[in-house]
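Hey, can you fold this one?
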Amino acid sequence: MAEIIDEEDLPPSWEPVDAGKWLKGPRQPMQPTLGHRSDGVYLFYPGKTHTVFGDTESGKSWLMLYVSTQEIEQGHHVWYIDFEDSADTILGRLLTLTDDEDAIARYFHYVAPAVPLWNGELLATRIEGATLVTIDGVTEALSMHDSSGRDEDAVAKFGVMIAAPLAATGAAVVTLDHVVKSREAQGRNPIGSVHKLNSISGAAYRMENREPFGRGRTGISDLYVAKDRPGYVRQLGPVAKNKMVHAATLTLASQSEADRTEVSLDNPSGDFRPTTLMERISRAAKSHGEPVTKTALVNLVEGNKQAKMQAVDHLVSEGFLAPADGSGTRKKLVHVKLYLKASDQAPILDDI
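Sure. Predicted structure:
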């Protein structure tokens, strides 16, 4: 018979929660507060574990680097624990998303482990105060720890010993994982043990590429909800394939000539809106003053040509640009009012 432990010796986590104190205190629903779409809807929960899984080059790391830029631009610390790639690749990609080198140096913490570490609580003391932790390469992480993604005990141990202590600091923890190679066998789960999904306390997303990413081109991937334990993300999107909710569309417009990447995370029911380019072009049109052709206008700013043309179309359809009356041709456009990126999440601002 197992030895009975004295109540005084119980570890703190085995003590019952004071339900009376909990009931009297302020109770806020567990809402997602990280990784916002262009319409202000968020995808990741603070203090919870998540996973994003999909084929190679489906855009998983790009997604999390974009979410990282959202956080560091607010002065929040983020960690990126990488078992697949190198600092040159990840930091290089991050620099195409934001040119704020000071913010990257101060708030973005990149780690490329070379030895196993089963003590997540030890690492948790280092990340205290961070809002986001990305663990890139679950299969490689388990292999480093002499385990397999198909081993349910190993997967459970990884979740309990590493991911959970990091989430306990209040950070949203997101693991990036793969799917099986066979298209017929792909479904709602990442590759390996079903426990990978069962152990998630936040949300799990399946990522599927629609248009390939690449330098100088625009790529598109879709994000589907495979699991949403708190339930605040699944309620926002339409049910799509395999009974999964279509949560967001990720668009990456690579500007090879400027070494920049325009990223948009959008409501899947709406069109891609290159909001950064829209603001740049609107400001350029205002500064230019004179009626200008669409081709000449897009040449006033740097960026991917296809995305710039889309930006002009949006500005015209929404009344920020208009055909120039009396210019001798309706092909010339004139500034009407200034578009600001913040307008997409607030009432449209008048010209300033």
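The chain has two domains: 32-266, 275-345. Let me know if you want another pass with a different chain boundary.
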